[in-house]
Amino acid sequence: MTRYSSRVPAWRGVRAGAMTLRVALAALLFAAVPDHGSAQGLADFDYENLSFRGIAAEWGYIFPDRVESTSSLSARMDLGFLGPGVRVVTGVTHWSSFLVADEVGRLERRVEELVLERSGEVVEIDLGQIEWRDLALHADAHMMWQVPFGMLTFAGLGISAHLMQGSGRAIDDTFVEDLLDSVRAGINAHAGVEVPLHRRFRLLGQGRVEMLEDLRYLELRLGGQFMFRGWLPGEGD
User: Fold this and answer.
1) DSSP code of 114?
2) In this structure, what are the phi and psi dihedrals at residue 57, rounded to the nearest 5 degrees?
3) pTM, to two decimals
4) Around 139, how many Cα atoms within 13 Å sit in the side-chain half-sphere?
5) Cβ partners under 8 Å of residue 213, min gap 6
6) Structural domain tally of the chain?
7) Which of 49, 115, 150, 225 could join 1 in a cystine, given CB atoms 3.0 to 4.6 angstroms apart?
8) What are the percentages of helix, strand and coil residues in the chain, rounded to 5?
9) Domain that holds residue 53
10) How many angstroms separate the CA atoms of 58 and 110, rounded?
11) Could you read off the pLDDT of 100-110 as tens digits, one per residue?
């Protein structure tokens, strides 16, 4: 695999005095990565490099706290560089799983308490299996730098909107389904590695921690990205 050219200078930090929210987010990311004096980096890009550069597909596996672990499918668009070493990425992720037994039991108890409160009748509720699906739209900012062996690494933060939908034979068209059907905001932290195999293709791997108000999960992903534009200085020879 071709290694990076030694002619590429170390990237410089985000320039002071930037006024936009996007660069403020980039500065936050900048603080989360290793000291830039100790690592090689990308060249000093500017806003002309903020453009659609590629599209990726990823398969993942999530480890949530309220539903059973399950696989995920994702697609993302590489929108290029906002500033020195700061890449912007948008994407979509989908997964579907079943609520764990403790969560189903908690919902059953809520329904039983509601019936008791409304009618004074003691009942035993069995909700069965409840499926929960998520379609997440996210926007991420990556701080990128170079490492040996022809690889790129990144760490970043992102925001997301989650379109959650619940279903089950016992809850369809009930208030329990309404509780699970909602749009939730989330934030994430992530880090990963990219291996450019060709000017038009690279392998991807990353780990993400997604945090919603009432759901958190670790996600591990593997995939590939097709590039519509060639390497920029610092991404390859």
Assistant:
1) H
2) -125, 135
3) 0.74
4) 7
5) 184, 185
6) 1
7) 150
8) 15, 50, 35
9) 22-99+132-173+181-227
10) 38
11) 999 888 888 88
